[in-house]
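Hi R.,

As promised, here are both runs. First protein below:
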Amino acid sequence: MAFGAQFLSDFRAARVTPTNLVLNVTLKCPLKCSHCCFSSDMFHGGHLSAADVHRCIQQAAQIPSMEIIHFVGGDPMLHADIVADAVALAASLGLRAGITTSAFWAKSPARATAAVRQLRAAGLTEMTLSYDDPHAEFVPLNFIANAVAAARECGLLLRIAVVVEAGSKITAASLRADLGLQDEPGINIYETVANSTGRGDGTDEDTQAGRVHHASAYRGPCESVLHTVTVDHEGGIRPCCGVLPHYDSLKVGHIAKEGIEAAMQAAADDPLYRWIRLEGPVAILAAVTAADPVPMRVEDFDGICTACDRIFRSPELLARVREAAEARHGQIETCEILLDGQAASANLVAAQ
């Protein structure tokens, strides 16, 4: 093989470096939050079986770059035994394990401590709690306080995710104060802007306008695609963090067929996902529709997940975007090589 061809082959192989496996254990949830990207509630059926979860983790462990398995929902604590067993497997294979939950189960300090101790004993390393105005309609603040205390006692890395938009009463700062965590900088309480995906797409025009104009609305390149791989509750493989409905058009494989590594290899060869990683879906839609009678403008979107939702739910728009990605295939590869070279140079300088 010629040197140039070998270089491109090695470079393409290096693109497949997922570090995070996200397992959508279930879409069922005791809450029915107005901003939920999956429209979760207790009427969603199905979940990953213990055997499915084991298969996912074993496949992920074969990928050298993989670092952590994260259990999400719905709420994965509806299947706490499956999660605890899976955490133990992940730990035995040298992978960290985390969970995202609403803390609906932390009704008392004793119950919270028992639940967290079970997971910590299995090998759980981190926990993310979700709490904001919509969550507060279903989960009292003392449940969050109970879960925080239990996580701290067990030595877990703890985060609290707060979704905000215009007029939100609960913010990262207010929640830190309400929980008495002002002197605990090691607990990361952070904000994200609500996406207009799933149930969040059904809000009124004023709410959606507030999201679009929020100072923290992000419209740049996607840092998740090809670095995070999600397995949905039916075993479908998705090449990003996947915080939008589980469209078939965004599925790149299945755990019982291609498996995670092969599916992600195929995704890494797909110019559309690579374009999303380089420029982001907002810029892509603006470019593809620029000559339309009513073009999509960058400032029309409240975030990149909303833009991807627009792309992957519309077969017609997806076909146009894919055609444009194919036409830019060479440019995309050139940009990737240049950026990879810049990163390598920066790492070399930092090492000196």
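And here is the second one, sequence first, then its structure tokens:
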Amino acid sequence: MPTSFHQSVIDEFRANEGKVGGPFEGGDLLLLTTTGARSGAARTTPLGYVRHGDALIVVGSNLGGPRHPGWYHNLLAHPVVRVEVGTSSFEALAVPAEGARREELFAHVVRASPGYGDYQARTGRQLPVVVLERAEPEGWEGPREVRTLAD
């Protein structure tokens, strides 16, 4: 269940085509909907993100807290997620980055948004870096009807 603050951000995001004010104003924000690891219920969380090619990168910073955020535990159990960015909504596969790939992506994130480096310095755990890979190409409308073998 989102906190009242998170719910207000979610509501504002959806009412304003992905734009929000307050501490997130002008930042890159998405809504990540995961499936609860234990409950199986849909859980939506507003998260900052960084683009890397066609992928979106999110970091399980939990503001530098001692534990990974709940959404991260959820996507480990159920990696197919729903992502809302601006007015787009799509299914994605959430893939935690590991090893050298994680280091490369985390450095990319910190260059774009230095606060994540501060969060990493604040905690004894390694912040998870997750790649959100779009499940279908942008603009894809599903399979077209085939009328003959020549189509």
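A quick note on the second one: Helices lie at 4-15, 70-77, 99-112, 115-122. Let me know what you think.

Best,
J.
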